[in-house]
């Protein structure tokens, strides 16, 4: 059995009820980021769960950049950003994904990945899974393989995993609300 770390990540996630609107329990990662030891523990735990032979860490804008870039730095593996539309300067592939009202786009640079790459996708939180599923599709469109999706937080009741059915999903903290 792995020893329990002195730091419990859960202690550094702040729950903000009714943000950004009524009925949403927002999981605020600010206290985790603000505490050097907790952020470092979080990055180490993500690294511990990384599959072998990963060529790139794919982070989803914008909180996925924080954890993805820290993980890239710790492991010495390169980082690839998935961005909101119109932000990436070179040629892109885009994918539309469902929001609660309407759709939005995510983009990746066309030359960022190819069939030689095996990657992990990183974001702060898995809710309905729409964002991560769109990201997996984008990565696969470029021919790369997604070895796993890594999240700091999973809102288990929303069953986002079901949208990622052919990809292993790993989360550090699970919440029921
Ligand atoms: P989804 O596509 O529904 O899985 O939503 C995931 C994205 O929305 C993540 O990038 C999160 O940052 C954000 N998100 C969704 N629900 C919450 C929540 N309750 N608290 C904080 N962030 C959230």
Structure description:
The structure is a single chain. This protein has helices at 30-34, 36-48, 63-75, 130-141, and strands spanning 14-17, 25-28, 56-60, 78-82, 92-98, 103-109, 118-126, 145-155, 169-175. With 177 residues, the protein is an alpha/beta fold. The protein has one domain: Rossmann fold, CATH 3.40.50.2020. Strands 4-3-7-8-9 form a five-stranded parallel β-sheet, sandwiched between helices. It has a two-stranded antiparallel sheet with strand order 1-2. A two-stranded antiparallel ribbon has the order 5-6. The mean pLDDT is 96. It binds adenosine monophosphate. Residues 24-27, 60, 63, 123-132, 160 line the site of adenosine monophosphate (AMP).
List keywords for this structure.
177 residues, alpha/beta, Rossmann fold, 5-stranded parallel beta sheet, two-stranded antiparallel sheet, 9 strands, binds adenosine monophosphate
| Integer count of domains | 1
- Major beta sheet summary: 5 strands, parallel
Q: What is the fold-level CATH name, i.e. the topology? A: Rossmann fold
The rounded distance between the terminal residues' Cα atoms is 28 Å
Question: Overall 3D geometry?
Answer: globular
Gyration radius, in Å: 16 Å
Q: What is the H/E string?
A: EEHHEHEEEEHEE
Number of helices: 4
Name the average pLDDT. Answer: 96
Strand order of the largest sheet: 4-3-7-8-9
Task: Tell me the structural class.
Answer: alpha/beta
Low-confidence stretches: none
Total beta strand runs: 9
- CATH architecture assignment name: 3-Layer(aba) Sandwich
What small molecules accompany the polymer chains?
adenosine monophosphate
Task: Give helix % range.
Answer: 10-25%
For this structure, what is the CATH class?
A: Alpha Beta
